[in-house]
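User: Show me an example of a complex going from sequences to structure tokens.

Assistant: Sure. Here are the input components:
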Amino acid sequence: MTERRLRDVPKPILLLLALGLGLQLAWHSRLPPPNPRPEALPQPPSLAALQLASLGEPVALAKLLMLRLQAFDTQAGVSLPFRRLDYGAVESWLSAILRLDPQGQYPLLAAARLYAEVNDEPKQRRMLGFIHREFLLDPNRRWPWLAHAALLAKHRLHDLPLARTYAEAIRLHATGPEVPHWANQMEIFILEDMNELESVRILLGGLLQSGKLSDPHEIRFLSERLDEMAKKESRPPNPRQTD
Amino acid sequence: MRSIPTIALYTLLEALRNRLVWLLVATVLAGVGVAGLLGEIAITESGPIQAALLGAFYRFAAVFILAAFVVTSMVREFNDKVLELSLSLPIPRSAYLLGKFAGFAALAALAGLVFGLGLLPYASLPQAGLWTLSLVCELWLVAAFALLCVLTFSQAMPSLAATAGFYLLARSIYALQLISHGGPAEDTLFRRFTGAALDAIAALLPRLNEFGNSAWLAYPEASWQQLAPIAGQTLVYLLLLGAAALFDFQRKNL
């Protein structure tokens, strides 16, 4: 379809167009500038509501919600430190996202590497507890995050019993062929740090005799550790110095 | 029956002359742009995130574009009296309807192919191929339902609204049934009535939430065996919709 020339348009219409554009620009210039106000993280809707809203695409919705949750600390014009987030709501969102997409690793990575690394012990413990509970639902896929949680418990919280609990859970539940031996052996080294030498000796001996290990270097390394444990246990205590 | 391929070809040509392919390509490019942005935000699983979100976006875009084209094309035929002209020729009504559907089905296959190609950078060929075939089946169902609606209502808005309602309900009916049958709420008479009503509605709808799930793109678990029930449901429902459309069309006083 061909168009008429510009000069065929009546001048009042051109003036009306220019006036409308000018008014809009003038109106917009009088509006106050955006005032960023951080909003609190709300609780997620129920799982049923999320499944309904997903319109049969729960995985896609889960991915989108995870991106939104992760970006929540960076709202328009405002940056919120993680420790100011309501961790109850964070945990609820992560849990809901995992229900929608059980195979997703993103929520547990965020829990372990973002939300559990804040400088707030109660919040750290809360996240570690969440990771532990979720690990038990799918141990062979979610062991890396519990391994990280064990390291956080040991090195950041200085809570060796808690680290041992997580490492023991990995040894007992993450038994799939894809789980590397070092993950199953974490408990041994944590027990050594706790000076529970007899427990270390029992676990190491059991592991070496189980036949699960095939790498000769690994077998030699662990055998040497077992010998060191035996020597440590048989060493007499240091004599007291007397005047 | 020789008129069926001719009608199908002209339907497809109409879509191509309306620059529908350009619209599909523009949608693919827009999706790629958004997926790229989302991939930059993600700190892990950026590939599965892009694939899953892109798959969902392409699916809804394809359904919208196809439904809108089917409805507007048929409404234009009604308004321009092309339908009356076609039926004045020695063409059976069933041949006209089947020809139109064949044209829309070919367009659906083209749309599925374009969006499937758009997913190749984010998903493996088998995953994208499975998803594409499933999307094509879904688009055939949407095209058939939109055709039925426009023959019934003869107007664009009610036809589009009915098609949108059908699609959203077919995608969410499974979740609605889970809600009505599960949960800790009391087992009241109203709840039982609602559950029975939803079950009855579900029996008349295809379970579209099982078609071309984004999980197939995000995780390499889909297998070709999963296509068999989708193909079966598509055939059964196309038969139902086709019979309904023929029934309605034969009764129209044109």
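The lines above are the inputs; the final block is the predicted structure for all two components together. Chain A has a mean pLDDT of 83.
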